[in-house]
Recover the amino acids of this structure.
């Protein structure tokens, strides 16, 4: 079964809004990768891309946002950029894990540490149950930062108010 | 003292001939026909070197060939030719009160604390917004006027924290006067990104930001206020201030748009929760790129480095890219004080901010606030301005001239940096911070750095110990072809000086040799507790500031000072 890269734009203003939509609407298909993308036109917003088996359908994108959706799909296809929200293994990245475990359990291919230090395989990552790796230079990469106690954590801090708290 | 400027004097038309070295050759508002023969010749040299803008560069943003040739040089460096006998005034241009929707304190609370912690000047900068524009901007003024009377030893400016359209926040400072409120209110009503719904990234909103700066320039020119200026605040926090926007502000109004915070406020924000701190990112820098962020900024830009913003902390980075163009662009350091860590006060009961434009006066809340991330003005961050007099005017003149250095935690007592013709040891000689030393090609030039070391404890009861001073040098390469560039590949740390222990002062010199092409240099120093190679490698910055650890960056153990640049311009 071949993989297709689909773009979608609903004009979401923030990652949290886009994730909220994904949580409610994305079909549960094994192997699926869904990303958010900051796009500048026709106005700055967050577009979505999904790499999925042929046959997965997404809602229509408004013609005004079609170019943004296409750009999101192209970035994902080329693995140049994108922030992965849904990817194989994401559900198992909770609590505190070693670097080796994180790489083993998920589709994340590489970890780097902001500021240029290395992450040893047995270094501990506090996932905060919120792990959003980035497509960069062809790989799905998780950028980590040093945190209190000599541990590491994903660069991106979870939204302090969970996106679905109102429901 | 003895500064010759009358108080009403308008800087945009100042061609002060009292200074030893005239800037007229650089001031393109003066036609060649009105220059002295010597200045015609000098201008010719500069033009030949590509350091003067094309004739059209005078008025058009983005067309200035080299900023050393734009008119502001006459202002920025007219005073900069003076040396010696400046009175260094410590201050803070970023302070919130009960007239901010996220504030708490009275004006008097901040002024009283700032004075106690050694400040000479403070700028009250409540947030722009609908309620503030309608009510707060008027109502805070009597409190500021009262503070000026009650605390005559403090200079208290009324300013504004502007929501820059399409960008981050910024400080607006106006000179006190009959129309200070009127001008601030009109500015906020017409040009604040929140009031106007113009915060998102767009060409129209970028234009509105420039229009706001133009308004301030006009208010000054028309003498509605005798002076006005703008500094960008926490510029890297969310990636919103793109390089072309920063260049655009500066080039549109080089006498109004003067610089950015080298270090943001909220310096207590990364004190660990185990030490009863908020455990957040230092400076509350903990964002990720969003839809309005400049996409080329790296993730490194979203965090602080040794307490400083990435734009300033990175040797060969964004700040250096502006200096390498010859653009005067200055750094400051402020508290951004809203709520002070471990303070026991709480917002006044029964407050109705929307109706009253303010919270009621704070009350005693008994328990220390362990979630706040701020210090009182003067407690940790200080902006030191070399002023030629003791009034509002001279503090603003010093800020505009870039005669400014900043420190954290009282790291040093004083700093005197001068570019000199080699061998000049005249106490009043040389070119101070923010200035331009113009010498004939082939002249040997050196820098003298004189530091008075801290001789009393800071407000954490620690005696700071300066360990190292770094000298950073970069070539002036003229106007950047790419307005979004944020690197300066010809800038690096050229030498570092170890500071001997147990002395009261430390003095260093460094020779640049016989100079033939334009360059600038700047100085920073540290207690040496934390460092790592800079983002462009150890060859550029072997011992730069370290990435601040989220939730574990005790600000008192990682102290730095940064000085503004001096240019050396051979002709």
């Amino acid at each position: 079964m071949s993989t297709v890269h689909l773009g979608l734009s609903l004009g979401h203003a923030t990652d949290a809004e886009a994730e909220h939509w994904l949580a409610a609407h994305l079909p549960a298909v094994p192997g699926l990768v869904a990303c958010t993308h900051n796009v500048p036109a026709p106005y700055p917003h967050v577009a979505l891309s999904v790499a999925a088996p042929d046959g997965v359908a997404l809602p229509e994108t408004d013609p005004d946002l079609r170019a943004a959706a296409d750009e999101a799909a192209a970035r994902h296809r080329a693995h140049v950029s994108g922030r992965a929200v849904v990817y194989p293994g994401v559900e198992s990245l909770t609590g505190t894990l070693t670097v080796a475990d994180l790489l083993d359990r998920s589709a994340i291919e590489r970890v780097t540490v902001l500021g240029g230090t290395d992450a040893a395989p047995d270094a501990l990552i506090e996932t905060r149950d919120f792990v959003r790796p980035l497509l960069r230079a062809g790989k799905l990469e998780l950028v980590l930062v040093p945190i209190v106690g000599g541990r590491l954590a994903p660069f991106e801090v979870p939204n302090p108010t969970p996106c679905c708290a109102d429901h | 003292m003895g500064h010759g400027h009358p108080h009403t004097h308008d800087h945009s038309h100042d061609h002060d001939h009292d200074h030893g070295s005239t800037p007229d050759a650089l001031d393109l508002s003066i036609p060649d026909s009105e220059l002295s023969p010597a200045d015609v010749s000098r201008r010719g040299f500069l033009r030949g070197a590509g350091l003067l803008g094309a004739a059209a560069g005078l008025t058009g943003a983005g067309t200035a060939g080299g900023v050393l040739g734009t008119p502001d040089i006459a202002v920025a460096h007219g005073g900069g030719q003076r040396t010696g006998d400046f009175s260094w005034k410590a201050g803070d241009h970023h302070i919130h009160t009960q007239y901010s929707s996220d504030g708490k304190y009275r004006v008097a609370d901040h002024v009283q604390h700032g004075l106690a912690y050694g400040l000479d000047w403070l700028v009250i900068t409540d947030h722009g917004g609908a309620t503030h524009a309608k009510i707060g901007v008027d109502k805070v003024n009597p409190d500021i006027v009262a503070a000026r009377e009650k605390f005559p030893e403090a200079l208290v400016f009324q300013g504004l924290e502007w929501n820059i359209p399409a960008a981050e926040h910024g400080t607006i400072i106006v000179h006190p006067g009959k129309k200070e409120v009127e001008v601030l209110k009109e500015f906020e009503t017409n040009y604040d990104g929140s009031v106007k719904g113009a915060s998102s990234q767009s060409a129209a909103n970028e234009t509105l930001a420039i229009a706001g700066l133009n308004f301030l320039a006009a208010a000054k020119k028309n003498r509605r206020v005798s002076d006005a200026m703008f500094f960008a605040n926490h510029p890297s926090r969310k990636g919103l201030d793109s390089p072309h926007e920063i260049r655009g502000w500066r080039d549109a109004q080089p006498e109004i748009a003067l610089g950015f915070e080298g270090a943001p406020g909220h310096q207590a924000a990364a004190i660990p929760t185990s030490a009863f701190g908020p455990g957040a990112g230092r400076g509350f820098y903990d964002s990720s790129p969003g839809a309005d962020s400049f996409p080329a900024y790296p993730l490194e830009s979203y965090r602080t480095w040794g307490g400083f913003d990435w734009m300033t902390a990175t040797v060969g980075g964004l700040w250096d890219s502006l200096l390498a163009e010859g653009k005067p662009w200055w750094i400051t350091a402020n508290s951004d004080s809203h709520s002070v860590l471990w303070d026991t006060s709480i917002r006044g009961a029964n407050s109705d901010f929307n109706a009253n434009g303010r919270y009621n006066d704070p009350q005693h809340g008994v328990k220390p606030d362990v979630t706040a991330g701020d210090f009182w003005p003067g407690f940790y961050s200080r902006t030191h301005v070399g002023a030629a007099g003791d009034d509002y005017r001279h503090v603003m003149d010093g800020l505009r001239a870039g005669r400014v250095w900043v420190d954290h935690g009282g790291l040093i007592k004083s700093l005197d940096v001068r570019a000199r013709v080699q061998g000049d040891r005249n106490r009043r000689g040389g070119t101070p911070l923010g200035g331009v030393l113009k010498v004939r090609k082939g002249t040997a030039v050196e820098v003298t750095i004189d530091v008075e070391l801290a001789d009393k404890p800071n407000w954490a009861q620690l005696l700071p110990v300066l360990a190292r001073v770094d000298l950073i040098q970069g070539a002036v390469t003229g106007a950047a072809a790419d307005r979004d560039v944020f690197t300066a590949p010809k800038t690096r740390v050229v030498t570092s000086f170890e500071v001997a222990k147990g002395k009261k002062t430390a003095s260093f010199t460094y020779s640049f040799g016989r100079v033939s092409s334009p360059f600038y240099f700047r100085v920073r120093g540290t207690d040496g507790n934390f460092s790592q190679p800079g983002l462009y490698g150890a060859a550029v910055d072997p011992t730069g500031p370290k990435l601040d650890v989220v939730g574990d960056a005790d600000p008192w153990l990682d102290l730095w000072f940064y000085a503004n640049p001096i240019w050396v311009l051979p002709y």
